[in-house]
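[Discussion] Sanity-checking designs against the backbone

I'm trying to build intuition for which residues belong where. Below is a structure token string of 415 positions. I'd appreciate it if someone posts a full sequence so I can compare it with mine line by line.
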């Protein structure tokens, strides 16, 4: 019997076991997935909780429900991987041997990494929305906010869903307007990037949307510490941003066991070949989803597209053949912009987000880097798609590899 062990039963790990259970012979292959708890959270839903759009219970389901028959779910905290012995050790001492290992333990917000963030102001005037607890507590804080300076802040890149802080900012602006208190709220967007986003064309587009909404951008802002008493963010170059309400995205880091096992970079991400997702230093370990170091967005859509490529490669490798599929870094993200509208970006390692229509040229129905209602409905449709199609590994009518169909080349004018 060959043993495939998957670490992490979140977005990527769940898709992996669903896809591979169908393709790997049950007599020959044992598949096991490990996670620290039995609660699967739909993280894109965190964005809507602070504004009352979703209730916390709408983004949570039992993990077990999405693990197919023929896959063992082991609940326990991973302590370390002993790659030389092909063994994983859990915190309670249990050992799980493997022939192939898939690391899919994602990335986690780490407020403990910034001095002052977890001080007395944490969850009083300092909040995050990258955790269920944080998003839920923030809903209450926004409700009782009577005005002042709201600072939306990114500690450092990379973060999962790099557009989420922008979406939060647009939604907050619309929220204060709808409550008739926009004139009493100053909104500041503090980012370590030199603009609104990582890629130039999207950055210019999204930056002009912040301008139009009278949101101040503090770019190249790398926080060193938070002065809790003065309620001020302090950067390494000694700039200060005072706040009445701070909504921060803490440093995102891969799991600590990755570092303990000697498998990670300085942020605990597993270095992999960006086309095959095979670990650079181990020929029987793959890393999928947010846990790896590939140079594209950390997003559920990336996990989805890459799992399809991975599954083909894995089956070839397991059969002793060369891996022939190549992941292109395809990412596809809806961006909420407030007032029931949104944008869409679609890009890969080589092509930055461009304007145009998606998926069909001229027809869409979605607009690329263009605000419209259809993109907002697309974003909302993602939640049922996630539970019913993506997690169970069912096919969806979107190309795995990014297509140029419908995209405008950078030098052509947007219609
Ligand atoms: C606010 C927000 C908005 C987002 N919006 C979007 C969006 O609109 N579109 C999009 O595509 N993506 C979005 N994302 C990103 C998306 O949710 C993630 O990229 C995706 O969930 C990554 O999947 P993953 O399997 O790599 O990690 P996860 O789904 O986070 O799964 C990791 C799993 O590993 C487990 N684990 C970790 N450490 C251990 C350990 N030591 N022992 C045992 N188990 C462990 C965890 O319990 C978890 O179940 C958003 C994320 C956030 C936070």
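Best answer:
Here's mine. Compare freely.
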């Amino acid at each position: 019997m060959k043993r495939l062990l998957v670490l992490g039963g979140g977005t990527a790990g769940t898709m992996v076991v669903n896809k591979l259970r169908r393709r790997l012979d049950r007599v020959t292959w044992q598949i096991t997935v490990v996670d620290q708890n039995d609660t699967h959270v739909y993280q894109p839903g965190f964005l809507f909780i602070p504004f009352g759009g979703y209730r916390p219970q709408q983004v949570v389901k039992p993990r077990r429900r999405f693990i197919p028959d023929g896959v063992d779910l082991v609940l326990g905290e991973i302590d370390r991987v002993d790659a030389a012995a092909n063994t994983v050790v859990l915190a309670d001492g249990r050992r799980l041997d493997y022939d192939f290992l898939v690391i899919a333990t994602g990335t986690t917000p780490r407020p403990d990494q910034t001095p002052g963030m977890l001080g007395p102001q944490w969850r009083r005037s300092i909040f995050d929305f990258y955790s269920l607890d944080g998003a839920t507590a923030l809903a209450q804080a926004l409700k009782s906010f009577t005005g002042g300076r709201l600072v939306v802040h990114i500690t450092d890149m990379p973060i999962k869903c790099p557009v989420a802080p922008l979406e939060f900012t647009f939604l907050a602006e619309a929220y204060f307007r709808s409550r008739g208190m926009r004139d009493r709220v100053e909104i500041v967007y503090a980012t370590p990037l030199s603009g609104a986003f990582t890629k130039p064309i999207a950055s210019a587009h999204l930056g002009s949307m912040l301008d139009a909404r009278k949101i101040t951008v503090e770019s190249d802002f790398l926080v060193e510490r938070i002065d809790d008493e003065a309620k001020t963010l302090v950067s390494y170059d000694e700039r200060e941003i005072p706040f009445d309400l701070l909504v921060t995205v803490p440093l995102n880091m891969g799991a600590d066991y990755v570092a303990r096992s000697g498998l990670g970079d300085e942020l605990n991400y597993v270095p992999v070949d960006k086309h095959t997702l095979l670990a650079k230093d181990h020929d029987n370990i793959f890393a999928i989803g947010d846990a790896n170091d590939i140079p594209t967005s950390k997003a559920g859509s990336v996990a989805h597209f890459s799992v399809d490529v991975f599954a083909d490669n894995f089956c070839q490798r397991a059969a002793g053949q060369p891996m022939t599929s190549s992941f292109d870094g395809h990412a596809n993200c809806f961006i909420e912009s407030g007032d029931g509208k949104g944008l869409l970006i679609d890009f890969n390692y080589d092509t930055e987000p461009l304007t145009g229509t998606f998926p069909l040229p001229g027809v869409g129905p979605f607009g690329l880097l263009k605000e419209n209602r259809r993109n907002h409905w697309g974003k909302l449709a993602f939640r049922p798609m996630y539970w019913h199609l993506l997690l169970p590994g069912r096919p969806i009518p979107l190309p795995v590899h990014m297509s140029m169909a419908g995209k405008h080349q950078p030098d052509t004018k947007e219609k």
